Amino acid sequence: MVSFLITLCLFKETVPKRKIVPRPRRARVASTASEDTLVDGKFLLFNEEPVPLRDLFVYPVIISISNYVSIAFLNICMNALVPLFFAMPIEIGGLGLDPPTIGLTMGMYGIGCGTFQALFFSRIVRRYGEKRIFMFGVFTFIPMFAMFPVISLVARHYGLCTRVWILVTIFLSILAVMDLAYGCIFMYITASAPNKRSLGATNGLSQTTVSIARAIGPAMSTSLFSISVEKNILGGYGVYALLCFISVLSLILASMLPAKVWEEKEDCSYHDRTLVSE
Fold it and tell me: What is the pLDDT of residue 151?
C-alpha cells in the first residue's frame, strides 16, 4: 500500500493525457507529424513512430537483453541456492540454520543492499562507467559460487563459529555489490530502444525473455544441488563449479557491450519534436 501511494502521488506518467484538437488554418507546419497536441497554446508535433517488433532485433537490443538474461539467470540461481544452502544440514554441504535465523540474515542483507544502492550507485557509476560496473557485477558471481564450498568446509570442521559468520557476511556483501549491475544493464536496455515510442516494446521483449531464464534457473540450480550431493560430484560441490563456468561465459558476453551506453540516434525520424505556434 505504501509503494502504491508513493507511485500514485509522486510518479509522473510517461504518456500524459493529450487532447487532439483541429489544426487552425493558419498554423504553420514545420515537419510531417503523426500526432498534433495542443500544449500551453502551442502545437507539439511528434515525429516518432513505434517500430515493428521485427525491427527490435538489432545488435544494441539483442546484446543488451542477452546480458540482462545472463545476469538474471545467475542471480535467480543464487537466490534459489542461498536459502537451501543455509537450511541444509552441515553434513550434506549446508549450514543447518533454522528458519528464523535464515529470515533474519536475509532481512539484514536486504536492508543493507537497499541502503548501499541508494547511497552509492550513482556515485560509483559516474566514476567508473556502466560497462565496468556491469562486468564487475558479473565477475562477482565467480567468487560467490566458489565461497559456497569454502563456507561449507569451514562449518564442517569448526561448526557455526565466528569464522563461518564472517564468511557469510563477506558473501552477502559481495551479493549486494553485484546488484549494481542491474541498474547498469537497465540503462543499456533503455538506451538501446530505436526511439522513445519503442521503449515499451523493448522493455517488454527484455522482460519476456528474462522470465524464461528466471523460470529455468531455480529448478536447474536446486536439482543440480541435489544431484551433486547424491552422486557426490566434486565432493558434492559440482553445481557450484558449473555455475562458475556459466559465470565466465557471462563475463565474456558482458565484454561485448560498448564502453558507453548506446548514444541516442540523431535521425530526426526518431527524435525530432517541434513546437509550432500559430
Answer: 94
122 shares a domain with 70: yes
Q: Is the same domain home to 150 and 162?
A: yes
Q: What is the pLDDT of residue 138?
A: 96
Distance CA 231, CA 18 (A): 63
Task: Please compute the mean of the pLDDT values over residues 90-98 and round it to a whole number.
Answer: 89
Task: Let me know whether 46 and 170 are in one domain.
Answer: no
From edge to edge, which strands make up the β-sheet containing 273-276?
35-39, 42-46, 273-276
DSSP output for 118-184: HHHHHHHHHHH-HHHHHHHHHHTHHHHHHHHHHHHHHHHHH-S-HHHHHHHHHHHHHHHHHTHHHHH
Question: How far apart are the two ends of the chain, measured CA to CA in Å?
Answer: 46
What CA–CA distance (Å, rounded) separates 185 from 122?
14
Instruction: Establish if 5 belongs to a structural domain.
Output: no
- Mean pLDDT for the chain? 83
pLDDT given at position 134? 95
| Residues 22 and 143 occupy one common structural domain | no
Q: Could you give the CA distance from residue 203 to residue 159 in angstroms, rounded to a whole number?
A: 46
**Which range among 54-63, 96-105, 181-190 shows the weakest confidence by mean pLDDT?**
54-63
Same domain, yes or no: 110 and 137: yes
10 within a domain of the structure (yes/no):
no
Containing structural domain, residue 222: 53-254
Report whether 198 contacts 51 (CB < 8 A): yes
